[in-house]
Amino acid sequence: xxxxxxxxxxxxxxxxxxxxxxxxxxxxxxxxxxxxxxxxxxxxxxxxxxxxxxxxxxxxxxxxxxxxxxxxxxxxxxxxxxxxxxxxxxxxxxxxxxxxxxxxxxxxxxxxxxxxxxxxxxxxxxxxxxxxxxxxxxxxxxxxxxxxxxxxxxxxxxxxxxxxxxxxxxxxxxxxxxxxxxxxxxxxxxxxxxxxxxxxxxxxxxxxxxxxxxxxxxxxxxxxxxxxxxxxxxxxxxxxxxxxxxxxxxxxxxxxxxxxxxxxxxxxxxxxxxxxxxxxxxxxxxxxxxxxxxxxxxxxxxxxxxxxxxxxxxxxxxxxxxxxxxxxxxxxxxxxxxxxxxxx
Length: 344
Prior knowledge:
- There is one protein chain.
- The protein is an alpha/beta fold.
- The chain has helices spanning 11-20, 41-44, 62-67, 81-87, 107-114, 130-138, 148-162, 192-195, 210-221, 254-265, 314-329; strands at 2-6, 27-32, 71-74, 94-97, 125-128, 142-145, 171-177, 200-201, 227-233, 240-247, 271-276, 291-298, 303-310.
- It has 2 domains: 2-123, Rossmann fold; 149-312, Dihydrodipicolinate Reductase, domain 2, CATH 3.30.360.10.
- The strands form 2 sheets. A 7-stranded mixed beta sheet has the order 8-9-7-10-13-12-11.
- Helix 1 packs across helix 11 (314-329) and helix 7 crosses helix 10.
């Protein structure tokens, strides 16, 4: 398959290049960057030296890029993928958007949380979280790749929501992310002297991943899910740890909780169930497409606490996009992704 990456100089775009280099069924044919057009990607990311000799192109040539590609991966900030999708609508090329433009069933929700007009509301699209929506992904023209915080949180809670074991209006998600989740563009908040030796919450009750988590869990459960989501920034480059709380319904036992996770994930290669009482850690998934999940039950409060760890740039972005690509293209889902985490 011929694949192209729009926005290849961002962290997610660079991670796509890293992962695709060892994918036996994909050839990267075009990469773009408006700020580095004409430059060699290896000059911007020296870790790719000797692996890629591609030069960055401009989005002005998007129609030509679309005609020469089987799949296009869009690793651009929100608001940009819609224009690309409209221009490529009549071409057979398929799109995987790592941004938020095609994640929502209801574009009014997107507009409310992202404060951007959705200019392609009628585009055929599916939500790209492979373990939950595999069937829909197979034939999709446009795949809205799930976000990083959302992936860790949804995967942690989906078995409980699907089996109706929790009060879906009691869910609290407390998640921590490495600073690469903020993107490559420098900002005061991810400036080293500000970030190092510090730990802070941000966008409390207003983070844009909130409705995305609610949408996916509502789809899985068949009932409305309402959450409190609080993200935190930690002084590390990669990784997300999500701690998710929910009230168990009356009569729900620890064994029912165990069974829900086993039923949903026992055959999922990229979901590693550590079991009741265990503690996932970001170090053990670093650089990989794995999601490690464990859960605890507090009999005093009758709450379940689910812990989920991913690498935000892999399972939370580029790896998940390639997993979706494999499904959509008809390849084995693990192709190009079945490698061990980087340790220590």
